[in-house]
Amino acid sequence: MLPPQRLLPxxxxxxxxxxxxxxxxxxxxxxxxxxxxxxxxxxxxALIAQEKPDLLLMQEATVDITELQVRVGGxxxxxxxxxxxxxxxxWSPTPWPRPPEVVTLPSGALIDRVCQILDLGTFGVxxxxxxxGQVLNRRQLRRIAQHLPVRAAxxxxxxxxxxxxxxxxxxxxxxxxxxxxxxxxxxxxxRCLVRGLTCRGQAVLPRGASDHRPIVVHLEPGNPQGKRxxxxxxxxxxxxxxxxxxxxxxxxxxxxxxxxxxxxxxRPSRES
Length: 272
Hints:
Radius of gyration: 19 Å
Structural class: alpha+beta
Low-confidence stretches: 9-21, 247-252
CATH class: Alpha Beta
Mean pLDDT: 83
Number of domains: 1
Shape: globular
CATH topology: Deoxyribonuclease I, Chain A
Distance between the termini: 58 Å
Oligomer: single chain
Number of strands: 15
């Protein structure tokens, strides 16, 4: 059985050109790699060279992705899911104050989930890949929130349709779809919820070989707990909720749509 967390040796030198974390917003990227057949170490190396993130969060990372630290230096931690070949991973060009904590989440019927929580000093970051059950994944979010400091961000693949409903947190991630379910319905599964933080910018990047697109956020301490969010943030959240509700209607008929598509592909041609 794989250990719950693997840290590569700290003596591997950091990649040249990466300065220590500076004051101001931290650039964080989150990407579901799609295990085995998706994004490779080459793709991650190119992403780091182009985007220069302060922190890279990965979901569905296999043991092969461990080579990333050998390629680019920095610091890497991998937390495989129990009895699975994949799990969560973090990479940073500079040392973190302490190794990421691994938190066990409420389990689903098939997969036991964990999350990684990293203390950046000024705020905490949780790397998540939540279950598909729409009640269970929200329970998992509430468990994660119990382990976070006052200022915190939760990024990753939420597998949530509709509002996340996590008290005290608000959604600051990109509003664009990040995943297309069976190429029929675009969904915004990859998200960023924050508490006590301000987002100075966000974007969605090309998905490459993965079935998810990476998201980018620039976060810094701000918006103290209890302070009313700015009007533009509340309007963005309202638009997001309306869009999620609009997309729920096709989801009700998704099984029928998939069945029709498969029947159409299997139906023999009537042309002579």
